[in-house]
Amino acid sequence: MSLAVVILAAGKGSRMKSALPKVLHEIGGRTLLAHTIAAAQRLSPDQLVIVTGHAGERVASEAKLHSEAAVIVHQDDQLGTAHAVDMARTALADHSGYTIVLYGDSPFIQADTMKAMQAECDAGASLCVLGFEAENPTGYGRLVMGENGLDAIVEEKEANDEIRKITLCNSGVMCAKTTLMFDLIAKVDNDNAKGEYYLTDVPYFAKKAGGRCAVVTCPEAETLGIDSRAGLAKGEALFQAKARSAAMASGVTLRDPETAYFSFDTKLGQDVVVEPYVQFLTGVHVDDAVHIKAHSVLEGCHVSTGAIVGPYARLRPGAVIGPKARIGNFVEIKNADLAAGAKINHLTYVGDATIGADANIGAGTITCNYDGVFKHRTSIGARAFIGSNSSLVAPLNIGDDAVVGSGSVITENVGDGDMAIGRSRQVTKKSLGKRFMDALRAKKKEK
Prior knowledge:
This protein starts with a strand and ends with a helix. A hairpin with a 2-residue loop joins strand 8 and strand 9. The chain contains nine helices and 33 strands. The longest helix has 21 residues. It has a 19-stranded parallel sheet that branches. Helices cover 21% and strands 29% of the residues. By secondary structure, it is an alpha/beta fold.
């Protein structure tokens, strides 16, 4: 049966204390909303509806970034979760399958969990609620079970002592046939302290109509909703723990797992070694048998088999590191291609450049790629040797097997096999060094 997913993303998230809408905060380099959309897309839904509210245009832009086909509907007034889902009524008017309701601030719901909820509905349940066994159920709505499934969802403030002992809690995620979902929502009223329409009332009306309400359970961590900075930190910790475990299970050595930080799209090959305090920002692909040394930061880059990176290296977007290349300490690479065996071992900036195979770039070398308005490229040939403390002023071509003398400022192309020296001739003044320093010391003593 066809599937629609409705993601509720209208809340402000006042406990975040932020100008940024709650669902646009990030975990693992990806917004909470993007995580939720990705989870929904794993089910290949026929329709995806995002309900926006606070900062609606910003939230809608983020949604469209991850799903061009998403339908955006706006909730002008936040009048409760049932009211929010009802905003999707028109968009899903012709939908004859199931609808799953997700939350834009709950990024960890798994596809298998949602499939299990669909299966319960296929088996005859009018609707299915996602529950979890809470370590500390305080504050959660309780799922009161009966002989034929879910009897009721009871919010804690309305629960008696007996119900408060229940540890099976409501996540808010729900699945039902689309037509039934909206028929039931139409029966929900706002006769409560907040004057809001709650989705948690829907099972009551389903059961009142003679339907069966099923419950699927998942680990508590999967249902985590992010509504504060502390919650965001907890969510990041959960994400990182899962990413680290997955990396090690796939054949990656993490020398100090707790200090390695991953993004949602980090790809590491087998036999990669990661030393302590390495950060993988978004867009990183590392091939097999790469050694990444401590305190390195990688973003938007590709590192090929057998390369060595770090310690204290920074690979910025567009860096492509060839097989068995070496990037040493305090080296920054940006938008540059390094061929196999190239070496840049220390204290160097290489931006907007192409470095040939087995080239050696000396310490303190800089590719001067920016003229204040435009960026320009530097090309360095295979087996070229660039002496330490050289400034290469782009646009510039340095040929194969060329040599640049240490301390040079190179502004003109250097041909294959040529040597270029671009520095002032040394002048030595006999005994002047000692006389100069003696004069300075005498002057200091007078003062």
